[in-house]
Design goal:
With 521 residues, the chain is an all-alpha fold. It folds into two domains: 35 residues; 398 residues, Ammonium transporter AmtB like domains (Ammonium transporter fold), CATH 1.10.3430.10. Helix content is 64%, strand content 0%. It is globular, with a radius of gyration of 29 Å. About 5% of the residues have low confidence.
Length: 521
């Protein structure tokens, strides 16, 4: 028995020692493999803070730690990596609120004052409806179709991996900002998506059925706005000249000259022609029922537009400061020039002229505000005060289309003009993203900024960028005009476009919404 026990003990001892040694070796290897990643040095931490101040890439401070695929060691941590910057984030949230303020109540009051009193609530209701509709579409797939990578269907839309805002968190998306939370950026861009279709209301005011507006705006977002937004602002959009090194058209649109104003303005013209003129157009008095409301709405639009333009820098930096400055100058100049033209031609400067001039100035400077200097903004303001005025005062009467609140004259013409002037007046000294930086990266083209790689920087130097802008204008016109024609006739065939003569005579407020804006005499 003792021999048996002794044998078992010796066998166990001989067997377990190697196993134990092997386990110890594996544990040691595992410990070595999972060793704590290197801590960032003081110099790297300071460089990360400097990146925050300069709105740069904080990971550049630790570039030496990246592997061949550009990835940092697992679990490497530095306070400025993968987190939003408080100042930039605060400005972006404020800008988002300002842009929403442009629609509710700014645009609602601006348009509400310009229509007849029996239709004032209809335009306010339509603005509110669009706000809710577009927000739902944006959450479902709109944000993904505009800003996700992918270039679905010949580059018209982005990918679908961000549907329902999947993965859109408070961490920044480096494709669009190193310091602004992606969920904040998504909400900021939502406000642009809201106001764009709302602008169309101005051309078809007082006569389009509410149900038709509901269906038209839904389809229009998918087939006009989402494609245009992706092509111009998506990181791999074919017309994103500032950020896409492989852009086929190296166009520039800082805050929405093509995306917002051209799409809405040209679509508005087509829709109002298909819809037809208001009953009594050219025979009855259809003057604005309240210039006071119009004036208040204009002021709200101007204030909110600082979030629209300066906020498009997606940072509280020098580019935002320049956009803020040029927006102010161009708007003020245009608000002065338009009524002066009225004074010369008609003998009286009107409050409507001041309001229209201000909005035109805001529209025309929109694509250019982050790319031109103050003197360029003056030129923009003068052009904005004269050319849209000419279209609203002369061209509209020559052709006889019923663009009720001058959406075409101000937004289509203004947006097109602004897109062109951006290419003529762009100044790389006010926006470092436009500078040819090939020499500073050792003449390595693949290390240069996107504007250098795709030819935008060279075009600005040689004053030929207007050619790319004309190409972008042409593509935008095709998308907006063709898309609107198809959508309008689909809606007309399915549910009809126009309110009945009885509804139009009574007014959309009572007939379609059961309310009145005013009671009594």
């Amino acid at each position: 028995m003792k021999k048996i026990l002794t044998t078992i003990v010796l066998f166990t001892f001989v067997t377990l020692i190697p196993v134990g040694l092997l386990a110890a070796a594996e544990a040691a290897a595992s410990t070595a493999t999972n060793a704590a990643p290197p801590a960032p040095t003081l110099e790297q931490r300071v460089a990360g803070l400097e990146a925050y101040i300069g709105n740069g890439d904080p990971s550049a401070a630790v570039a030496s730690l990246k592997d061949k695929d550009g990835n940092l060691p697992k679990d490497f941590n530095m306070a400025t990596l993968g987190t939003s910057g408080p100042g930039h984030n605060a400005w972006q949230m404020a800008s988002a609120a300002l842009v929403l303020f442009m629609t509710l109540p700014g645009l609602a009051l601006f348009y509400g004052g310009l229509v007849r009193r029996k239709n004032v609530l209809s335009v306010c209701t339509q603005c509110f409806f669009i706000t809710g509709l577009v927000t739902i579409l944006w959450w479902i797939c709109g944000y993904s179709m505009v800003f996700a990578k992918g270039n679905t269907f010949m580059g018209l839309w982005g990918g679908f991996d961000k549907m329902f805002l999947k993965g859109v968190t408070s961490a920044p998306n480096g494709d669009y900002s190193y310091w602004v939370s992606e969920n904040v950026y998504a909400m900021y861009q939502l406000m642009f998506a809201i106001i764009t279709p709302a602008l169309i209301i101005g051309a078809i005011a007082e006569r389009m059925k509410f149900s038709a507006i509901c269906l038209f705006m839904t389809l229009w977002m998918f087939f006009v706005y989402f494609p245009q937004g992706h092509m111009v602002w998506g990181i791999d959009g074919l017309m994103n000249g500032v950020w896409n090194a492989k852009a086929k058209i190296h166009a520039m649109d800082f805050a929405g000259g093509t995306v917002v104003h051209m799409t809405s303005g040209w679509s508005a013209l087509i829709l109002c022609i298909i819809l037809g003129k208001r009953l009594g157009f050219g025979k009855e008095n259809m003057a604005p029922h309240s210039m006071v409301l119009c004036m208040i709405g204009t002021g709200m639009l101007w204030v909110g537009w600082y979030g629209f333009n300066a906020g498009s820098a997606v940072a509280a930096d020098g580019i935002a400061a320049n956009a803020f400055t040029t927006t102010t100058i161009a708007t003020a100049v245009a608000s002065f020039v338009w009524p002066m033209a009225e004074w010369i031609v008609r003998g009286k400067p009107s409050l409507l002229g001041f309001c229209s001039g201000a909005v035109a100035g805001l529209v025309v400077i929109t694509p250019a505000c982050g790319f031109v200097n103050p003197s360029g903004a003056v030129i923009v303001g003068i052009c904005a005060g004269l050319i849209p005025w000419f279209f609203c005062d002369k061209v509209k009467s020559w052709f006889g289309y019923d663009d009720a609140l001058d959406t075409f004259g101000v937004h289509a013409i203004g947006g097109t003009l602004g897109a062109f002037l951006t290419g003529v007046l762009a100044d790389a000294s006010v926006n470092g993203n436009l500078v040819n930086n090939l020499a500073s990266v050792g003449n390595k083209m693949d290390a240069a900024n996107p504007a250098t790689q795709n030819g935008l920087a060279a075009a600005i130097i040689h004053h030929t960028q207007w050619i790319a802008q004309v190409k972008a204008i042409g593509l935008t016109l095709v998308l907006a005009i063709v898309g609107t024609i198809i959508i309008a006739y689909i809606v007309k065939a399915v549910i009809g476009l126009r309110a009945s003569e009885e509804v139009e005579t009574v007014g959309l407020d009572l007939a379609e919404h059961g309310e009145e804006g005013y009671h009594g005499a």
